[in-house]
Specification:
Elements: H1 7-12, E1 23-29, H2 35-45, E2 50-56, H3 61-71, E3 77-81, H4 85-90, H5 98-103, H6 112-118, E4 119-120, E5 123-124, E6 127-139, H7 140-145, H8 157-168, E7 175-177, H9 184-190, H10 192-196, E8 203-204, E9 209-210, H11 215-229, H12 247-250, E10 254-260, H13 262-270, E11 276-279, E12 281-282, E13 288-289, E14 292-299, H14 305-319, H15 321-329, H16 340-343, H17 350-359, H18 369-374, H19 379-388, H20 393-414
Parallel strand pairs: 1-2, 1-3, 7-10
Antiparallel strand pairs: 3-14, 4-5, 6-10, 6-11, 6-14, 8-9, 12-13
Length: 415
């Protein structure tokens, strides 16, 4: 009898002990709208469990998920900006994924930075999913015009300053360096690694202690302020809230800028005439660091066991070489460093530099990241903007003292 049935009919029979395919709901932010649909399409094409994807505007995702979780309409799973993982874990809105994570044979090769902010009370609630790293980019044509070696990027702050001065001396609306001076998110991504690589921190003790009033932070601020005072940074930097974070360098008149691995694909596709190099964000005397950005994959606390099994099968696919290649080919760095080179094979070699930066990257841990860092008037944003463009040393120290007090106050109030 069974031999006479079609394959589809056999698959439709609910045999005892045979798991049935499940469809789970999955949200992602618009920043993931290139690679996530392709990853979902490839997973769904395999048959069996299916992912039902919804893309949410990036600026709305966190609030939308918070409201949905409170009202019981949350998705089964979510690709979440990794910095927000501690807040949702602390709120009890995420499922404990510790056993699944540690059962993976490549667990030790997953991004340490993603796992660090995905862990709450020694349990894992967020798993590495997509990745971006902060790097330093230089304009090879401008370096050549300035008499510099176009194939050699700066390796410490003295190199950055010397190279920026050489390019800035070209004149004709050409500047040595650019950063978005009024963007908290941009500067946590690209300025903090300068501090880390120099031995400093901005948060300690699992995010409970602000450390803005340290020599390492002050020296990094003085480094940026010095370039501002030397006229190496365009005046528009002071009010840039992030709109020109990438666009300024694409204008082909900036010598050096801190950016992210996303810039590699964007420059290659949109500005092919800009000849550029990619290196690491250096410490004062050498060494380097990076902000490990991207998303953690989280599962809603109320997701059923049946849906959870489907979610786990999707994650296993995303972690496979095929899945990591799909991510790498569509704008995300691999989150498995044991197969990163294989996943990036055939792509622009500069992605490998970014992948190495990400593997050594860090991500600040705090449940109040938005309040102390990302918000328009956060203590971090206000402190840096005032200090970078301060008229006097006294104004710099006043900005640091104010930022330290306000950040610590917010942290204390949240505990």
């Amino acid at each position: 009898m069974q031999a006479l049935l079609s394959g589809a009919a056999i698959a439709a029979i609910a045999l005892p002990g045979l798991a049935q395919a499940e469809t789970f709901s999955l949200w992602t932010r618009a920043d993931s709208s290139v690679f996530m649909p392709k990853l979902v399409e490839a997973f769904n094409a395999k048959g069996g469990d299916q992912a039902e994807l919804q893309i949410v505007p990036t600026g709305e995702l966190v609030q939308k998920y918070a409201v949905a979780s409170a009202g019981g309409s949350q998705p089964d799973a979510l690709s979440l900006d990794l910095i927000y993982t501690p807040a949702f874990a602390e709120a009890g809105q995420l499922k404990d994924m510790t056993e699944f994570a540690k059962s993976l044979p490549f667990y030790d090769s997953l991004s340490k930075a993603h796992l660090s902010v995905g862990t709450y009370d020694d349990r894992i609630y967020g798993l590495p999913f997509s990745a971006d790293a902060s790097v330093l980019i230089w304009n090879k044509n401008l370096f050549k015009e300035a008499g510099l070696d176009p194939e050699k990027g700066p390796e410490n702050w003295a190199d950055v300053l010397a190279d920026a001065k050489a390019v800035g001396a070209l004149g004709d609306d050409t500047y040595g360096y650019y950063f978005s001076g009024n963007c908290g998110g941009c500067n946590i991504f690209t300025f903090t690694p300068l501090i880390w690589a120099s031995g400093g921190e901005i948060l300690q003790d699992d995010g409970t202690k602000a450390t803005l009033d340290t020599p390492e932070v002050k020296e990094a601020i003085d480094f940026y302020r010095g370039m501002v005072m030397d006229g190496l940074v365009p005046a528009g930097s002071q009010t840039d809230g992030g709109a020109n974070f990438f666009a300024a360098f694409a204008g082909d008149n900036i010598g050096i800028t801190p950016s992210g691995s996303f810039a590699i694909g964007a420059l290659n596709s949109q500005y092919p005439d800009v000849d550029y190099g990619v290196t690491y964000l250096p410490g004062k005397d050498g060494g380097w660091s990076s902000f490990a950005g991207g998303d953690n994959f989280v599962v809603s606390a109320k997701t059923s066991d049946a849906k959870l099994a489907a979610v786990e099968s999707f994650l296993e696919f995303a972690y496979s070489l095929e899945g990591q290649k799909i991510l790498a080919q569509n704008g995300s760095l691999p989150v498995r460093d044991d197969i990163a080179e294989q996943a990036l094979e055939g792509l622009d070699a500069r992605y490998l530099t970014a992948a190495k930066a990400m593997a050594k990257g860090k991500t600040p841990y705090t449940p109040v990241f938005n309040d102390i860092i990302n918000a328009t008037q956060s203590p971090w944003t206000a402190m840096l903007n005032k200090a970078f463009f301060a008229k006097s040393e006294d104004d710099v120290q006043a900005a640091i003292d104010e930022g330290q007090d306000e950040m610590q106050s917010i942290i204390d109030a949240s505990r």
